[in-house]
Amino acid sequence: MTKTVLVAGLGLIGGSLAINIKENTDYHLIGFDVNSQTLDYSLKNRIVDEVVTDFKKAVKQADICILAAPVSKTIELIDQLKHIVVDKPLLITDVSSVKKPIIEAASGITSDMITFIGGHPMAGSHKKGIEAAKGHLFENAIYILSPDDSCSSKNLRELENLLKGTRSTILKLDPTEHDEMTSVISHFPHLIASSLVHQAKKWQKKHVNIPTLAAGGFRDITRIASSNPAMWQDIFFQNKSIIQDLLEDWVNEMTDLKKLLETDDKISMYQYLEQAREYRDGLDTKKKGAIPSFYDVYVDIFDQTGALLKVVSLLAQKDISIKNIEILEMREGITGVLRLSLLSQKDQIESNRLLIENGYETMLQE
Ligand SMILES: NC(=O)c1ccc[n+]([C@@H]2O[C@H](COP(=O)([O-])OP(=O)(O)OC[C@H]3O[C@@H](n4cnc5c(N)ncnc54)[C@H](O)[C@@H]3O)[C@@H](O)[C@H]2O)c1
Q1: Other Cβ atoms closer than 10 A to 110
Q2: Which fold, 295-364?
Q3: Ligand 1 lined by 124 (C-beta under 6 Å)
Q4: 97 C-alpha vs ligand 1 centroid, how far in Å?
């Protein structure tokens, strides 16, 4: 008999999982969301087979339930699950960016019929909502699962099978380990990116041309500050104690750097920069990590009518789809003025080859 999957929270992540499951399985998909427009959109675009407004009723129908609401709302849904009596086995997973508070909440589910496996697909976008959802969002991404000791291999296999179509790489991590690592490489950098943007905004009062200078590299290094503020506020507070520790570490490190300047310690400053460069250069550029990457090609074009169209047509002839296009006014530090963002590294390399073959000067993003 066809199994039923309930996706609760049909935003960017829940919607993308629903599209992917629909494309790759014959499961019956039910969608639940507190936003009625999202439900209408999901039904109209056949992202799910059925939509519901009663979470408890839908849970009783489901064999598998994916909780994909914001972290604090997912905890509220788990609290509701504690009081629902189901009469068939139910496998529940979530997609929250923070794992410890979720697993703690889920430990209060006492029904023998219910198995909870924490999950976190480490792929996303700065966009939010169902309209930004896409089935291939998780391709080549790391998908973390946090099964506890009581989880049977049968249940784990069932979830892994459901996620097979995402073409992500499953990695099993303990919730605390997960929260610490993702804080270091994703949550905390987000806070710092936002603080850099605030600093630029403050200095703009003195130097009105700051936005012009910020168009190139500064915009790149602060890209994650453009993500969904509501989601990040929720993540920071759900992961408060680790973020607090990291902030304290960071403040101490900045104080040490300030001392190096005050004492004219050029050797230590050089070593600090050199060690950072070595570590960064050793990171794998071919894998998707916690922060979504873009595959950019910078192209030098001349200010002539049709110049942009020529570049776009060249790539279109080879079926290469351009995710974003931007004309940069700054030339400092980069070869070209046209930035093309591609969907994959394969497209990036192919576009670069095509452009070079056609006489363009290019540079790839490192
Ligand atoms: N966006 C990312 O980059 C990313 C990556 C990995 C994991 N996540 C996690 O995915 C989850 C969802 O994030 P998103 O980016 O899809 O957000 P989103 O804002 O795109 O979608 C959230 C959806 O949840 C719905 N919702 C809110 N409260 C609800 C409730 N009580 N019951 C049911 N639905 C509810 C909203 O209406 C919306 O449709 C979060 O827990 C987040 O931590 C996000």
Answers
A1: 7
A2: VC0802-like (3.30.2130)
A3: yes
A4: 10
pLDDT in tens, 117-136: 999 999 887 789 999 999 98
Q: Which of 231, 235, 237 to mutate to test the pocket of ligand 1 (most atoms within 8 A of CB)?
A: 231
DSSP track, 110-170: --TTEEEEEEEE----S--SGGG--TTTTTT-EEEEE--TT--HHHHHHHHHHHGGGT-EE
Min mean pLDDT across 41-45, 132-136, 252-256, 260-264 is at: 132-136
Residues facing residue 324 across a β-bridge: 341
Q: How far is the CA of 302 from the centre of ligand 1 (A)?
A: 43
* 21 touches ligand 1 (CB under 6 Å): no
- Whole-prediction pTM value? 0.83
Give 177-281's CATH code, choosing from 1.10.630.10, 3.40.50.720, 1.10.3660.10, 1.10.3720.10: 1.10.3660.10
Residue 335 CA to ligand 1 center (angstroms) comes to 39
Q: What is the CATH topology of the domain spanning 4-173?
A: Rossmann fold (3.40.50)
Phi/psi for 5 (5° steps) reads -115, 130
Who wins on pLDDT, 227 or 251?
251
Nearest Cα residue to atom 1 of ligand 1: 124
Q: Is 97 in the pocket of ligand 1 (CB under 6 A)?
A: yes
Contact between 342 and 319 under an 8 Å Cβ cutoff? The reply is no
Name the residue of 6, 7, 13 whose CB sits within 8 Å of the most ligand 1 atoms, as the mutation to test its pocket. Answer: 13
Question: What is the token pair recorded at 121?
Answer: 């697909």
Report whether 295 contacts 345 (CB < 8 A).
yes
